[in-house]
Design brief:
Layout (H helix, E strand, L loop, with lengths): L11 H22 L1 H17 L6 H31 L5 H30 L1
Helix pairs in contact: 2-3, 3-4
């Protein structure tokens, strides 16, 4: 039997409460340590409210907001991959480079997705 993390012992509301605190700590860490995440949060803070002033239907607005939130989600995952790779080793290795490059590519695709969705909704 594989030993589980000692943090997995909580159940019920206690687990939910702990998970909320871990999530908020992760957001705080990303805001403090990740320049790209801060920039994308700033863009999201501008675009999401702006979407409510545009003459688009609810589905279009939901797509616009969802695409912006997806960029933030993918950036968080990319930052987690980069931190994990750096934790394992700071030595240059082709697999570490590949992992970081693939994470970066995912962010690029999320950004292009947001751009295309906003263009499609706004241009009809």
């Amino acid at each position: 039997m594989v030993d589980e993390s000692p943090f997995k012992g909580q159940t019920g509301l206690r687990r939910v409460w702990n998970a909320l605190h871990y999530s908020l700590a992760g957001l705080r860490a990303a805001l403090v340590a990740e320049d790209a995440f801060r920039q994308e949060v700033l863009i999201a803070a501008l675009l999401i409210p702006w979407s409510f002033f545009l003459a688009v239907d609810g589905i279009g607005r939901a797509l616009m907001i969802g695409s912006v939130l997806l960029v933030l989600i993918v950036e968080l995952l990319n930052s987690a991959i980069e931190a994990t790779v750096d934790r394992i080793s700071l030595d240059r290795h082709h697999l570490a480079k590949r992992a970081k490059d693939i994470g970066s590519a995912a962010v690029l695709l999320a950004l292009l997705n947001a751009l295309l969705i906003w263009a499609c909704v706004l241009l009809g």
